[in-house]
Amino acid sequence: MSEAAREHALKVALLQRSDLWKRAAARTRRLSGRRTDDALDAASMADDYRLLAHDVAKVRRLLPDSRSREYLEAAYAQAHAGLYRSAWHPGYALLELFRDDIPAVVNWLRPHIIWATALFVLTVIAGYQMVHSYPDLIALFASPELIATVERGQLWTEGLLNVVPSSVLSLQILTNNIVVSLFAYCAGFLFGLGTLYILGLNGLMLGAVFAFTSLHGLGDDLFRFVVAHGCVEISVMCLSGAAGAAVGEALIRPGSGSRGESFQRAALQSGKLIAACVALLVGSGLIEGYISPNPVYPLWVRVVIGVSYWLFMLALLNGWLFPRRRA
Amino acid sequence: MDPLRPDLVVDSVTGVDVALPVAGPGARSFAFIIDWHIRTILAVAWYIIAALIYNRSWHFTAPLSPNAHWFIYVVAPPAVIYFLYHPAWEIATRGQSPGKRVAGVQTVGRNGGAPSVGSVLTRNVFRLIDSFPFAYAVGLVTCMLTRNSVRIGDLAAGTLLVYSHTDAALVRYRGEGLSSRQLDTNTAEVVTELLYRWDSLDKAARRRIARSIIPESEADDDSTLRSRLEQMAGGDLPKHAIAEEVKA
Q1: Which of A243, A205, A203 is nearest to A121 (CA)?
Q2: Which of A10, A54, A259, B72 is most buried, taking the most CB atoms under 10 A from its CB?
Q3: Which region holds residue A255: left if phi is over 0, alpha if psi is between -120 and 50, else beta?
Q4: Which segments in chain A show pLDDT lower than 70?
Q5: Distance of alpha carbon B69 from the chain centroid
Q6: pTM for the full predicted model
Q7: Which residues of chain A make contact with B241, given a CB cutoff of 8 A?
Q8: Quick check: B188 and A17 in contact, CB under 8 A?
Q9: For residue B71, how far is the Cα from the chain centroid?
């Protein structure tokens, strides 16, 4: 038998199996789109996977540039993805995220959280000192309308609910805060510099505005407005900054792996904390829309709400809300 | 498959690696443009219809003093459609969106499987950076410069876009339906190898091997055995069928 005839015979034998490939591909498509409890289905899928692997190896050698190869490679890849797909239960995944993953990430990010908080506090003090010493510098941080309102002896938050309904206010605030938080995290991609910029700018603005309102005798009113939602909002700012700093550090000091691997690991790990931050900012936004601008609530109520929500955040981030069951 | 196009190669327990052709900037842009049109049309359509219902007249501009209903029913849903379109589709369909489906690509993890929810969210959050300063310029440039044509979001999430080839079709042949006469490729290989080395093999040995393949051939002589084996190996497929199968 000649070499050509041998090749031909093998190709024929291979192509005659196309019905088996079609059946395997159809079963893979059917099973990869849904959940099944049928053991026979699972066993068939494993058989199909072996069959496709076997024929992919053959077709790569015998018909490297063919439609059969394209078909088989696609079917094989789909079978691989279907077979190795991990089971995903949204409820359990969420529980695992808050019970195990987030406390682990917080623990890992502890040094970054401390440094980000220190930076934020320092920039708040710097902003306060700057505007306290040179009040004209407030123009760098606040809009002309805000400055004019404060100079008239009013806080821009007064009568806010007469202009915008609480629900709308909450929605606007929480959207804005979430975007800032996500930016602080993503900006870590610029070797951490973007995160430092966002964190520093927010700290300077907060300090500057507090100094400016204090100079006009409105410092207490601003504190009264901020305390209910601010404890968590500011903490989340620091947490997002810490997540962004970790992403930046992974690029600066990749450790044993490559820079890409290190970046990916840090982004995925610290991203879990960002998920918690987003959830916390939703609560903060609701407080800022419904409670903070409402003059009905006295200071002590606001302090209790602010501190309680902050303690809730602490418990959430440390996994105390979902303790593990003892075996 | 294409020497100019890199493949994502994933090891498998079968010993045969899974090769997924990586999609380039062209396929990515094509998918994105389709998705952008879909989400824009959906968001605008929602806004117009909701605004017409809210205003109860043929104009869809915002009222002078909009109340909460205006924001909740008219403004918020289009924003949600526009900004959560990609993560929602990719989570629900395990890495695909309508645009990606049309472009024949899908998002996969480095293991070749569907990306995790965390990966999908991370790659979409990083759109904030990829979309800078306008028209996804950062993402497009990164895509052109990286080996696997990935944007920053993919680098962060450990994902990439590959061609799914779900539309790949097989040509039907006349001999295809003869399942009872089909040889598995291992047997076919043994048969062809046996025929290839027929003359060089010891007569008793080749008869023994042939009979192990065709058990009912005890009485057959040497030449009958060979012709039966040749018939098996030849199959029903004419040469032109294979020529047709191989791409030009």
Answers
A1: A203
A2: A10
A3: left
A4: 1-2, 33-35, 325-327
A5: 43
A6: 0.82
A7: 15
A8: no
A9: 40
How many contacts does A have with B, using Cβ atoms within 8 A?
202
Nearest to B233 by CA among B176, B185, B171, B199: B185
- Report the length, in residues, of chain B: 248
Contacts with A24 (C-beta within 8 Å, 6 or more apart), sequence order:
A48, A51, A52, A75, A79
Which residues is B161 bridged to in the sheet? B107
Tokens of B30: 């094509």
Please report, as a single letter, which amino acid is at residue A317.
L
Chain A, window 155-184: residues with a beta carbon less than 8 angstroms from a chain B beta carbon: 165-168, 171, 175, 179, 182-183
Number of continuous H segments (helices) and E segments (strands) in chain B? 12, 4
Q: How many CB atoms lie within 10 A of CB A320?
A: 13
Which residues have C-beta within 8 Å of that of residue A96, sequence separation ≥ 6? none
Q: To which residue do tokens 């196009």 refer?
A: B5
pLDDT reported for residue A306: 96
Q: What is the 8-class DSSP label of residue B23? A: P
Mutate to test the interface with B, among A16, A54, A78, A86 (most CBs of B within 10 A): A16
The ipTM estimated for the assembled molecules is: 0.88
Nearest to A247 by CA among A262, A231, A226, A227: A262
Q: Which of A7, A11, A61 to mutate to test the interface with B (most CBs of B within 10 A)?
A: A11
Q: What is the pLDDT of residue B175?
A: 46
CB B167 within 8 A of CB B102: no
Per run of 10 residues, the mean pLDDT along chain B (length 248 residues) is 67 88 93 96 96 89 80 91 95 91 92 90 94 90 93 95 77 46 64 80 85 75 82 58 49
- Distance from C-alpha of A58 to C-alpha of A229, rounded to nearest angstrom: 65
Q: Which two tokens stand for residue A237?
A: 């700012």
CA angle A192, B115, A91 (to 5 degrees): 95
Q: What is the DSSP letter of A103?
A: H
Beta strands B105-109 and B159-163 are: antiparallel
Are the beta carbons of B156 and A76 separated by less than 8 Å?
no
Gap from A243 CA to chain B (nearest CA, Å): 13
Beta-strand ranges (E) seen in chain A are: none
Instruction: Give whole-number Cα distances, A151 to A215, B127, B245, in Å.
Output: 10, 40, 82
